Write the structure tokens for this entry.
Amino acid sequence: MLTRLEVNGFKNLVDFALDFGPYTCIAGVNGAGKSNVFDAIHFLSLLTECSINEAALQIRNAGETTGEIADLFFAANGQRDNRLEFAAEMLVDKTVADDFGRKAEPSSSFLRYEVAFRHERPSPAAGPLGGLVLEREKLRHITVGQAARHLKFPHVKGKFRDSVVRNTRRSLSPYIDTEEAEGGRTTILVHQDGGSRGRGRPAPAEGATRTIIGTENTVATPTILAARREMHSWRILALEPSAIRRPDRYTQAPGLAANGAHLPATLQHLANRAPLYGDDAEDVFAMITSRLSDLIPVKRVRIAQDEVRQLLSLELEDPEGLTLRAGAISDGTLRFLALAVLAEVSDEPVVLCMEEPENGIHPGNLPAMDRLLRDIAVDANEPVGIDNPLRQMIVATHSPYFVQLQDKNDLVLAKNARTHADGRGVFHRLKCQPLSGSWRCIPPRQPGIERISLQSYLMPPDDARLTL
């Protein structure tokens, strides 16, 4: 779970900081920079599986390395910055397994990760084409005593916080640290969970193609591995109806892709494993059907099995008994159905980011979408467990209907703020402002905005032709 994000120098994120709760809605006009927040989260996630430059090139490029790294840097007055800084505070799972299935327990479950890069022209460090060079990397723990100050959103200590925050590390040294050596050389140091007071295992930063968080894959460093697993699970949902409609082979591994692919295999897997938890397979389909009935009249959701071609396909049965195959289901219904399936997946703690969840949904049905998104997120008033997985939902919207459904504690307003700074002149940067009286405004935190700032979301547009 991502509890705080700090970014500097990435697109229009300058000295940017935002605290997250289990559910967060970012509202803002087109071009304010809402998507840049998701891009920053996506970049940190990509670092866990890609080289540094590959991660940078994949931002907004659908997995293709066809982007331009320079476009990631903040630009003002005709000049671009050449440095990127990121920091993320996160809750990680209390057990972790490596690729060989070996399990271990991280010594800390509440962590802060920091990483910084600079942009260089072709050089031995940056490679023949130039790119990002690792400057600094750090991973440290947040103690149980510090947790109250860092977990700022409303929660129940004896239930939620005590179930997710754990720390047995006695050493003050970080798990990952950066050391500046003579001659300007930078070394990344890796400390094991035992917390020895030695120097740590060194790795030269110069010429490093990947971060430490993207290379450690052993239970010898379980806390670093837990941070890597957590960051890898941060997903940007871009649900595509064409992907959701596609059938799956019997051999397809379960797990809903970011575009919604493999929904039939995932739903069938949930039904197959239901008896392990004392449920019936039909209970899973009944739960999905119940959620979908908030959107459209539906009698049953099911998975059709083609024994000849070994395929699983999605089907709906309407109240009249008519079977609707995936190709006949509307786009908005398919997106809603994919989220309903995600709500039932309880064994994968993830951060889910979704832009414009209102797309394809009639305004009268938006309350159902809002309830579903909140149900996906963890309940901070209850302990984390199989029935309350550590899962988080972050959405971005510009729909006035959707904004009006939000609780003030869950809403922040994205603005492209005009700023003046010595040496930079006047420039525009993204600011996410909470509403007055919400938990993000409790002193000494930032002041909030009044509801008058949401006027464009609460009133008809100036040129409205139809009003009540």
